[in-house]
Amino acid sequence: MEIIVQVRHNQHQGIPHFESKATNWEMANRQLEEGLELIRCKNQFYKERGIYNALICGIIDFSVTDDSGTITGQFGFDINQMDKSIEELVDWYSSVQQLA
Q1: For the chain, what is the radius of gyration of the CA atoms?
Q2: SS3 for 71?
Q3: In a designed cystine with 1, which of 32, 50, 64, 66 is the match (CB 3.0 to 4.6 A)?
Q4: What band does 1 get if pLDDT is binned at 50, 70 and 90?
Q5: Are 77 and 85 in contact (CB under 8 A)?
Q6: Running DSSP on this structure, what letter comes out for residue 81?
Q7: Tally of CA atoms within 13 A in the half-sphere of 85 that contains its CB
Q8: d(Cα 67, Cα 85) in Å, to the nearest integer?
Q9: Residue 97 and residue 25 in contact, taking contact as beta carbons nearer than 8 Å
Q10: d(Cα 43, Cα 25) in Å, to the nearest integer?
């Protein structure tokens, strides 16, 4: 099994701010938490300096490949409502794990 998760700004179509490749869900979950924390810190850094083109809306792309094929999808979140977004993300991510 290979799980690829990318987190990027909704205006940056190509380059992700964070990417993880994992071989199991436990590793993928841990890496995603680390990636979201990195983005939260980066956003705070920009806000403190008055740079308002900071990450506001993010997109998480995922791809899960195993013996039965590949599942891909996308999840959008608002970094200014990160706690709510993380709750929604956990629910969504759990449903993805059940599909795989």
Answers
A1: 14
A2: strand
A3: 66
A4: confident
A5: yes
A6: G
A7: 17
A8: 31
A9: yes
A10: 27
What is the residue whose two structure tokens read 């709510």?
Answer: 84
Give the tens place of pLDDT for each residue, 71-84.
Answer: 777 777 666 666 66
Q: Which two tokens stand for residue 21?
A: 């490749």
Residue 60, SS3 per DSSP: strand
Running DSSP on this structure, what letter comes out for residue 23?
S
How big, in percent rounded to 5, are the helix, strand and coil portions of the chain? Answer: 45, 35, 20
- Per-residue tokens: 63: 């791809």
Q: Where are the domains of the chain?
A: 2-99
Write out the two tokens for 40: 């939260």
Encoding tokens for residue 81? Answer: 């409502």
Within 14-87, strands assigned E span 18-22, 57-66, 69-78
